Amino acid sequence: MANSPSGESVINRVIRLLAAFRDESPAMSLRQLARMAELPISTAHRLAAELEVEGLLVRDDAGKLRHGHRLWEIASRGSRASSLREAALPYMEELVNQTGNDVSLGVIEGVDVLYLERLTVDDSSKNITKIAGRLPIHGCSAGLIYMAFAPEAERERFLSRRLEKLTPDTVVDPVELRALLARAKERGFVSVGGIIVPEASGVSVPVFGADGQVLAMLTLILDRGEENLAANLPQLTFASRAISLRLGFEPERKGIRRKSAPAS
C-alpha cells in the first residue's frame, strides 16, 4: 500500500476523510473536508473522487460531500453492532415505555464507550449520548460497569491512567475508583450522578455474550436525585438478562450469579 510523504498509508488517509464528518457537519465542501481531515486539498480531491465512484461519498443538491448509503450498507453486513442492536432494541423500547426514561446501548471502543443505540423520551439536555457518539469510560456509568467486570489486567491499566475531571463529581482517584468498581461488580450495576452532566444520573448493567464476557452495557439516563432504583433497576436488569440470553449467554452453565441489588 503506497504511503504519503508523512508515512501514512492510503487507508489511513481514507479513514481520516470518512471520519471527518460530524453531526454538526454532515455535509462539507471539498475544501472544508480537506481542512477537517488535515489533508492537502489535492490528496483530498483524489481520494474523495475515488470514494464517490464507489458510492461511499455522494454529493447533495448543494454539491457538498456526505456519506453515501453504500458506506452504511457495507458496515452493516456481518457487523456485531447490528446484531447487538437488533437483539436489544425490543427490550430498550419496553424500558422507555415502562420507566419513562431515556435508554442507551454502548460498547467499549478503545478508551471510550461507543453508543450503538439511544432511545429518548424527549429532547432533554441531560442525555448527551448520541448514536455513533462516544463518551470516556470514566465519564459514564456504562464505562464503569464494563470496567467492574473487565479482566483484571485491563482494569489495572484503566486505574493506572491519568483521568480528566469532567465535573466536580467525576471519580478520578484510583483508590475511590477501585472501591466503586468492586461495589459495582458485587451489586451487578452502577448508579452514578453528575459525573459528566451535573443534572443527570446513569444507571448501567452489563450485557453478556455467549462467552460470558461483557459484550455491551445497557443504561437508563435519569434526572439526578430521581433515580428510584427500587422501581427502575429491576426493569433494567430484566432487559439486560433478556438481551444476554438472545445473544447466547447461558448463566447457569457459566456459573455467573448476580446478587439482588439493594433498593437505594
Structure notes:
- The chain is α+β, with helices and mostly antiparallel strands and 264 residues long.
- Helices cover 43% and strands 18% of the residues.
- The chain contains ten helices and eight strands.
- Strands 5-4-3-8-7-6 form a six-stranded antiparallel beta sheet, sandwiched between helices. Strands 1-2 form a two-stranded antiparallel sheet.
- The model is unreliable at 257-261 (pLDDT under 50).
Question: Can you give me a brief rundown of this structure?
Answer:
The protein has 264 residues and is of the alpha+beta class. 43% of the residues lie in helices and 18% in strands. A hairpin with a 2-residue loop joins strand 3 and strand 4.
Question: Which features characterize this protein?
Answer:
single chain, 264 residues, alpha+beta, six-stranded antiparallel β-sheet, two-stranded antiparallel sheet, 10 helices, 43% helix, globular
Which SSEs are present, and which pair or pack?
Blueprint lengths: L9 H10 L10 H8 L3 H13 L3 E3 L5 E3 L1 H8 L3 H20 L2 E8 L2 E8 L14 E3 L4 H9 L2 H9 L13 H14 L2 E4 L6 E9 L5 E10 L5 H18 L4 H4 L10
Antiparallel strand pairs: 1-2, 3-4, 3-8, 4-5, 6-7, 7-8
